[in-house]
């Protein structure tokens, strides 16, 4: 079993078999990681343009596999979603975020942290109960927690998912539409979701300039969101010019490599003390 070899040593003799073997190994080891270790969080700042400061971040899951090393969430999250272990990972992320918020609150550092929720999580009848219990255990006000949800996750089973979103909302958790503009976006769907924030997908933002077609989409999405009473986040801001355009168009919050990559908690705290390029 290649996954059992020490020191990251792997025998790559059959390319396709190796890719398949890697998937099987990752699927097997994910549950173990959620229970025994290997998962950790990175935090990426979200810059509030009106206030010119950072009090929000997105928590992004990282996995250090004993053999493969750092595995990207783009690889292991879809595997976890397909094989029924995503709820275990989400539970781990929620608790890790609340533990971090507890530590920051205790040191007078106020942060609001968003985390990513999958379709299967919204189908779980116990999600809201479990989150409520954890908020109490870690003494965290619910409005310091934001759940990012894609429209396609809601579309999987809309009635059930919307019911869960309303229950989470009653707890006081804020909700954000992730990856807006991809997949099933529709105004009708958006109006049914009890959300406070909309994140424009990074595919519209990364190469943005004021002459491209994306500019029209981005500007009208910002205006539409405001008309619906939602805050707008642009993610994938990589250039100063993009920041300037989004600011001129009235976007509320920016996130992207231009400000900072996702960072481990201690590096994130150090970054907060500097807050360059805002
Ligand atoms: P996402 O939720 O859309 O998260 C944003 C992704 O864009 C992150 O990738 C982030 O590192 C990256 N990013 C941020 N700014 C920039 C930028 O300026 N340029 C570019 N090129 N990329 C930028 P990451 O951390 O690799 O996560 C990928 C996806 O994996 C996430 O997309 C999300 O769908 C999923 N994911 C990550 N953590 C979790 C988690 O805890 N739970 C769930 N269910 N999904 C997660
Ligand atoms: Ca997200
Ligand atoms: Ca996103
Ligand atoms: Ca995404």
From TrEMBL:
<protein>
    <submittedName>
        <fullName>EAL domain-containing protein</fullName>
    </submittedName>
</protein>
<feature type="domain" description="EAL">
    <location>
        <begin position="23"/>
        <end position="276"/>
    </location>
</feature>
